[in-house]
Amino acid sequence: MALVSATEMINKAHAGHYAICAFNINNLEWTKSILEACEAAKSPVILEVSEGAAKYMCGYKTVANMVKNIHDALKITVPVALHLDHGTYDGAKACIEAGFTSVMFDGSHYPFEENLAKSKELIALAHAHGCSIECEVGGIGGSEDGVTSSGEKANPQECATIAALGVDFLAAGIGNIHGIYPADWKGLDLDLLHEIQVATNGKPLVLHGGTGIPYDMVNEAIKRGVSKVNVNTDLQLAFQAATREYILSGKDEDKAKKGFDPRKLLKPGCEAIKAKVTEMTKAFGSYGKAE
Ligand code: 13P
Q1: pLDDT for 150 beyond 60
Q2: Separation of 252 CA from ligand 1 center, angstroms?
Q3: How far is the CA of 204 from the centre of ligand 1 (A)?
Q4: Is 85 a catalytic residue?
Q5: What's the CA-to-centroid distance between 51 and ligand 1, angstroms?
Q6: Is there an atom of ligand 1 within 6 Å of 179 CB?
Q7: pTM above 0.85?
Q8: What is the tens place of the pLDDT at every residue in 195-223?
Q9: CA distance 233 to 135
Q10: I need a labelling partner for 204 at 20 to 30 A (CA). Which of 143, 162, 227, 247 fits?
Q11: What is residue 137's three-state secondary structure?
């Protein structure tokens, strides 16, 4: 199966009260590890790329070709979408051209009327190319790859207006933050999430900042309409901890076993990514759903 738009998997998740994990990728190792884990878990998945990570990987075309080729070489059978995370207006257009199957347009920093106009235009363009599209109302707090927001909570009426444009899924700020949550974090605003779900007539919602939210709180959010959970930092932390352990144990210096070979050096990190991906597909309910 080729890469697919995220619409069908997200709609099924919404109807079945579970969520699809959207994992940010940074390189070949991330892509391969996530795909292998999701194939073994029989879980649909979204691979997402920030504009900064795409630049690091030499551009959208390189990313699209790399993901398609790894996907085909591994003979992946579960549904996989390639999605732009927090896209700008120009970035979303470029990804649609480059062969992404899903894009996010994050116009939340614009005055609402401008967010609305740009969202409307990009929704039409994405759909003309068979691409799914996510838009955003209200900011996700913290900073990710240079995209910073103070974490303004979404206005349900504005959410309803953007939902009515025909967006496939909607990101709405409900107190969630990218990166590591501060110790005094107040938690997700689940009442606001419910209000948004009602105001948007049951539009599938996206929970950004999936790292560090207790799984039972994520599941409460899923009950209130969240169907896509974005996770970036957690996989970075899992990779870092396993790589650190390998190096601190001195295995990288074992000349006889060639512990310095990058394929050996990166393997514990990749295995840690796979374990975390499997854990999250189980926690958020997509495990086994592509059987
Ligand atoms: P975390 O890095 O907090 O998991 O957030 C990921 C995200 O929301 C990507 O858009």
Answers
A1: no
A2: 31
A3: 18
A4: yes
A5: 13
A6: yes
A7: yes
A8: 999 999 999 999 999 999 999 999 999 99
A9: 21
A10: 143
A11: strand
